[in-house]
Design goal:
By secondary structure, the protein is an alpha+beta fold. It has helices at 91-96, 128-145, 156-168, 172-182, 186-201, 225-233, 247-261, 361-367, 370-376, 400-406, and strands spanning 2-15, 34-36, 39-43, 64-69, 75-80, 152-154, 208-218, 222-223, 237-242, 279-292, 303-308, 314-331, 336-342, 348-355, 381-389, 391-398, 422-423, 429-443, 467-470, 475-481, 486-493.
């Protein structure tokens, strides 16, 4: 059984009339006291970065937070932040007091703390509130997109990553909007995506997850050196200069880059008319995922059956069948059955949220919370008679209106302050277009030689002791990274034939 996911997203930056640059703002972060495993996070003394002495400020504006091992008193994790309403710093001084790190620690004491020679990258890093922010952002996206009829598919990871990159070059209220929607401080988002990318690169599996970013700049555009450094080192983004005077050639160069990064799975997604003569930059993010089920579905068991659409009509589609142990349960709060299908090595899982008969998927979505998505991961395995349609879903959309709905609009307006990205003859840029494409394909076939690995399969029978999970009506899907604890994509399937 293979699942293929292709995500493409681009943001195109145009120049606009010159605007006055605003000073960068450092954000405060409140970290409440809480326990986690053997680690206690607390507000510590506030250290003045310039004179190296205690500095009396309100703890609500904490500059210095530490995580301690309660048994040894050892400092495990450390934060530094600047209260923007207390002291004014120059850019040099701000860079000198960037956050050291922001992670909390796994209950099993697997510590990942930058600068700690004894630390190591766990195979199950818990990124806590930061990956929770991506999950929360994903739900906002899905609920915002649900205003449109039909199938919905998006990668909150891809969109959040590109917004986080823009966040690094935004100042003032432009940056504030992104920070509020992502629920991530600029420093934290840059470090988070650096660590997530590094964690994925360390994996060894037949499951394939490729992600690539590129900041494509006009030859005449002067990119900010700090932004370029963050793009390369935190987001592992390429930075490329091309001539936009020939839109056809420029779009082909970008498409060739995307194809190369995704093993030719994404082709010709940027049309020539998307670029214009005054284009200054194109920010591109592409994801390709191909997963092998932990236990494959048997092709000979796939049979045509009826899928009931929301409008009352019916369609006959091929249904895959399996009878085995799946993590599943009923969530009566949202009137749904929930089931997780694991991928090889349990690195990922496909979560299926199936509304009860007569319950609209949109009503379920309105009651779905981040906490529930995390709770579903802890379901116990039960014997299930599963029937699920084989399908391919494609989504191609301009997310300009969606980002506006979520509260991000300045980046598209003449009020944009993106001078941290760069300038062109003293002119401040803005973003003109935001495009997000996704393709999800589910079938019985493995996507690599490893799919030939033998797995035991329990034969279907008429025994009614198994739980029935018949996905014959609109449902919600979440592709979850079990090790990073973050959703890679989320969607609503209304019609599996589209």
């Amino acid at each position: 059984m293979a699942l293929k996911l292709v995500i493409y997203m681009s943001l195109i930056i145009w120049n606009v009339n010159s605007q006055r640059s605003q000073n960068p703002i450092m954000y405060q972060q409140n970290i409440p006291d809480f326990y986690m495993g053997q680690t206690f996070i607390e507000n510590s003394h506030h250290l003045h970065p310039q004179i190296n002495s205690d500095y009396n400020i309100n703890p609500r504006h904490n500059m210095f937070s530490r995580g301690y091992d309660k048994s040894t008193g050892q400092i495990l994790v450390e934060n530094r932040f600047v209260p923007d309403n207390k002291v004014s710093y120059s850019q040099t001084e701000i860079q000198a007091i960037q956050p050291i790190h922001y992670h909390t620690v796994q209950p099993d004491q697997q510590i990942y703390s930058e600068g700690n020679e004894h630390s190591k990258m766990s195979q199950n890093i818990n990124f806590d509130n930061n990956t929770f922010a991506i999950t929360s952002f994903g739900l906002k996206l899905l609920k915002g997109m649900s205003r449109d009829p039909g199938n919905i598919l998006a990668s909150p990871y891809s969109i959040a990553m590109l917004l986080a990159l823009i966040q690094q070059g935004a100042f003032g209220e432009t940056q504030n909007e992104i920070t509020k929607v992502l629920q991530l401080m600029p420093e934290s988002s840059a470090e988070l995506f650096r660590d997530l990318t590094n964690a994925v690169k360390k994996r060894k599996s037949h499951n394939i997850w490729k992600i690539a970013s590129n900041v494509v700049l006009a030859d005449t555009f002067s990119v900010d050196s700090r932004f370029k450094s963050i793009a390369i080192h935190n987001f592992e983004s390429d930075v490329t200069n091309i001539n936009f005077n020939n839109p056809l050639e420029a779009s082909q160069m970008i498409n060739n880059w995307v194809a190369a990064k995704t093993n030719n799975k994404i082709l010709n997604l940027l049309a020539p008319d998307a670029l214009q003569l005054d284009t200054l930059a194109v920010l591109v993010n592409a994801i390709y995922f191909k997963g092998i089920w932990e236990t494959k579905f048997r092709t000979e068991l796939t049979k045509p059956k009826t899928f009931n659409l929301s409008n009352g009509s019916k369609k006959v589609v091929p249904f895959m069948h399996a009878r085995r142990m799946f993590r599943t349960d009923i969530d009566s709060d949202i009137h749904s059955q929930v089931l997780l299908i694991p991928f090889e090595k349990a690195q990922y899982s496909m979560m299926i949220i199936l509304p009860f008969e007569g319950i609209n998927a949109l009503d379920v979505l309105s009651s779905l919370t981040e906490q529930k998505l995390y709770a579903y991961q802890k379901f116990t395995a039960k014997e299930v008679q599963l029937e699920i349609p084989r399908f391919t879903v494609k989504s191609e959309r301009n997310i300009f209106d969606l980002l506006n709905f979520l509260g991000i609009w300045r980046i598209f307006s003449n009020e944009a302050n993106l001078t941290g990205i760069g300038t062109y003859q003293g002119i401040t840029p803005r973003i003109s277009t935001a495009v997000h494409n996704a393709v999800l394909s589910i079938d019985e076939q493995g996507g690599s030689a490893a799919a030939a690995t033998a797995f035991s399969v329990v034969a279907l029978s008429n025994d009614d002791s198994a739980i029935t999970f018949h996905v014959n009506r609109p449902f919600l899907i979440v592709l979850w990274d079990n090790q990073l604890n973050v959703p890679l994509f989320m969607g609503k399937i209304e019609d599996p034939t589209l």
